[in-house]
Specification:
The complex is a heterodimer.
Chain A lengths: L2 H12 L2 H19 L5 H12 L4 H26 L10 H10 L3 H34 L4 H18 L4 H16 L1 E2 L6 E2 L13 H17 L20 H23 L4 H16 L12 H16 L1 H7 L5 H12 L8 H4 L1 H22 L3 H8 L3 H20 L2 H19 L5 H23 L11 H16 L3 H8 L6
Helix pairs in contact in A: 1-16, 2-4, 2-16, 3-4, 3-9, 3-14, 3-18, 4-5, 4-6, 4-12, 4-14, 4-16, 4-17, 5-6, 5-12, 6-10, 6-12, 6-13, 6-16, 7-8, 7-20, 7-21, 8-20, 9-18, 9-19, 10-11, 10-12, 11-12, 18-19
Chain B lengths: L1 H24 L2 E2 L2 E2 L3 H27 L12 H20 L1 H15 L5 H22 L11
Antiparallel strand pairs in B: 1-2
Helix pairs in contact in B: 1-2, 3-4, 4-5
The chains are: A mainly alpha, B mainly alpha.
Chain lengths: 500, 149
């Protein structure tokens, strides 16, 4: 099927009234999640996963995808008005966005964030349409060694791009893989690390892990800090940017879109790295770098475009290779598998309606977000006035409902609480949680390909470097590991933020 | 610095446990890898990296002149919240979602948000009722009704 045929099929699926409704619900909830600090898109998608079980696969994924890219839009509102990022990819928007708001230019800051996000999201979807088909065709020839190489590279990238020390990232990745290996081994039938508990036979549920590590631990960390925050007072006027704003923002939006797209493809890259990289590029290219940090509109336009382009690009490795590049798409992978859909190169052939329906709905969702964000900014501001002291108990209740709705088991609720405390302890000791979750998702797949490769080659480890793709992946992984030991690279990693 | 030693030692101990348990599962050989092979290798990695972290902490501890920094405060708010969450989970099945949630919310509104009694009670009952209606009745999520069922 050509890309044009695919887009036409996608339009047919995405424009069904049910799918339009769920796309709207997804982007609305995503914006809400992005606006409200304290609950990230990973937790929100995990919480809503049980709701999608009764829906057709395409509809369920359209809803969850909408939450993901919708949250990227919403995060900027909180950054600009409250100086607290609604989600991690909007951290950098606080710097200049909030300064613009303090100078009475909250409207143009919010406007350019929404318009830049829309343009970058559109760019991301168009390139996604063009790239997916050839990539999926290439991936059809991949065997155990190629997949093993890709997954090793993915896990190394996640460790290298995570915040803090590489040693800690490697440790959390290893723990994540071991947690992922729990349950019945599909190749030998052996029970691994089940502690004779029937609940562990199928392994640890990804929803329980993610909600505990991100949702519960976030609340446990936040509760130690002040529960008060101040929202900027005054009416927000003139949301549409002026001609001068446009002149200064066009370049940053274009550069942010391209940079964000390529960084979004990398495992562990995602919106956070993309937004920071875009900010750094704009500051470097600017003729007036001294204005950065004092309300430069380029410092809002570039990063906000980059994180939305990254959100679209992140779907490419998931949909074409079955490899999720970040935690959120790891949960989407779980959602696809629950629906009986196997992500990977065959997805475009076996489930063309789902694939193209989701891709086209992402464009429609971006249009909805533009329409939704600009007129509803006043409503989001009112929501931000809800005190965190009222909000955090409800977040915990939602976490409990999310896990219980998926598992119907009190044991899993205790497990969630345990992961919450583990996540709290790991965060407090400077560990990034993203490698743990990606290790959990990718580890079991990597193990299967490792063992298949070893069996196929009769125990010859050099088998994994006999294919150009796997040899290249393993070589890049080795270079990256070596590179992060170099002092300059270590200093750069220390400055990376944590993604949720 | 003391915490770095404790964290490193903790990782090493966990890695050692994983390596031993994985070895017991069977690591097989290169031509016929067993179910414990990858976990065994990862356990060893954790032992080595955790040990290195602990060793760095010990070196820093020995090198520090004025001793360790002031001990960190006990995170009592976090601990109280974790205990409240566990009590809520324990109460969920026997007394049901609506009552357990209302009691949990009221406790947190009073204990953490310092709301006035009447406001906390009314808000918690309203939020428990609305969320039950939303999840159970509108979205079809299975939640225990408990004594009200």
């Amino acid at each position: 099927m050509s890309s044009v045929d695919g887009i036409l099929l996608g339009l047919k699926v995405a424009l069904l009234p049910t799918n339009l409704l769920y796309c709207f619900v997804g982007v609305f909830l995503g914006t809400l999640i992005g606006v409200l600090p304290g609950i990230g898109p990973a937790t929100a998608i995990a919480l809503l996963l049980p709701v999608t079980f009764g829906l057709p696969p395409a509809t369920g994924i359209i809803l969850l995808a909408g939450i993901y890219y919708g949250s990227m839009y919403g995060g900027s509102t909180t950054s600009i008005l409250v100086n607290i990022p609604g989600e991690a990819a909007s951290i950098v928007t606080c710097i200049d966005g909030h300064q613009m708001a303090r100078a009475g230019r909250a409207g143009p800051a919010l406007g350019i964030a929404a318009i830049g996000s829309f343009l970058a999201g559109t760019f991301g979807v168009v390139v996604l349409c063009l790239l997916c088909a050839p990539l999926a065709r290439a991936a059809l020839t991949f065997g155990a060694r190629e997949y093993f190489g890709l997954m090793v590279l993915g896990l190394v990238l996640v460790s290298c791009l995570s915040s803090g020390s590489l040693t800690k990232a490697a440790l959390t990745t290893a723990l994540g893989i071991v947690l992922g290996l729990m349950g019945i081994d599909t190749m030998s039938g052996a029970s691994r690390f089940t502690f004779d508990r029937p609940e562990f036979i199928d392994g640890i549920d990804v929803i329980t892990l993610v909600i505990g590590l991100f949702g519960v631990s976030e609340v446990l960390v936040n509760i130690e800090e002040s529960l008060k925050r101040s929202v900027l007072d005054g009416r927000i006027q003139h949301i549409l940017p002026t001609r001068e704003d446009w002149r200064r923002s066009t370049g940053p939006i274009a550069r942010g879109s391209v940079l964000g797209f390529f960084l979004g493809l990398l495992p562990g890259g995602g919106g956070v790295i993309a937004s920071f990289a875009a900010y750094a590029v704009e500051k470097r290219l600017s003729r007036t770098p001294e204005q950065f940090g004092k309300g430069a509109i380029e410092g809002v336009a570039g990063p906000e475009s980059a994180n939305n382009a990254a959100a679209s690009a992140a779907f490419i490795p998931l949909l074409t290779l079955g490899i999720p590049p970040n935690v959120i798409l790891g949960i989407l992978l779980g959602a696809l598998m629950v629906q009986g859909v196997a992500p990977g190169p065959l997805l475009m052939i076996n489930n063309a309606d789902l694939f193209w329906g989701v891709v086209v709905s992402m464009y429609i969702g971006n249009v909805m977000l533009l329409v939704l964000n600009l007129p509803l900014i006043g409503m989001w501001v009112q929501l931000l006035r809800i005190p965190y002291g009222i909000m955090f108990p409800m977040i915990l209740v939602f976490c409990v409902v999310g896990v219980y709705g998926t598992t119907s088991s009190t044991f899993h609720l205790y497990l969630m609480a345990g992961f919450g405390v583990l996540g709290y302890a790991l965060r407090k000791t400077g560990h990034d949680l993203t490698p743990l979750v990606l290790g959990f998702v990718l580890g079991p797949l990597m193990e299967v390909h490792l063992r298949r490769g070893l069996i196929a080659s009769d125990g010859d480890w050099s088998y994994f470097i006999t294919s150009p793709i796997s040899a290249l992946c393993l070589a890049v992984a080795a270079v990256l590991l070596w590179g992060t030991v170099v002092p300059a690279a270590k200093r750069w990693r220390q400055r990376l933020p944590v993604e949720d | 610095m003391k915490s770095a030693v404790a964290v490193g030692a903790g990782w090493s101990a966990l890695g050692l446990y994983i390596a031993i348990a994985a070895y017991d599962l069977g690591i097989g050989n290169a031509g016929e890898p067993g179910p414990g092979l990858l976990a065994f290798l990862l356990g060893l990695v954790m032992v080595v990296l955790g040990g290195a972290g602990a060793a760095r902490g010990v070196v820093a501890l020995v090198g520090a002149r004025g001793g360790d920094a002031a001990p960190a405060r006990w995170p009592w708010r976090m601990a109280a919240l974790a205990v409240a969450l566990v009590v809520y989970i324990a109460a969920l099945q026997p007394i049901g979602y609506p009552l357990a949630t209302a009691a949990f919310l009221a406790a947190l509104f009073l204990g953490f948000a310092q709301l006035a009694w009447p406001k906390a009670i009314v808000l918690s009952i309203a939020l428990a009722g609305v969320s039950y209606a939303l999840f159970k009745l509108a979205l079809g999520v299975q939640l225990p009704a408990g004594v009200l069922g």
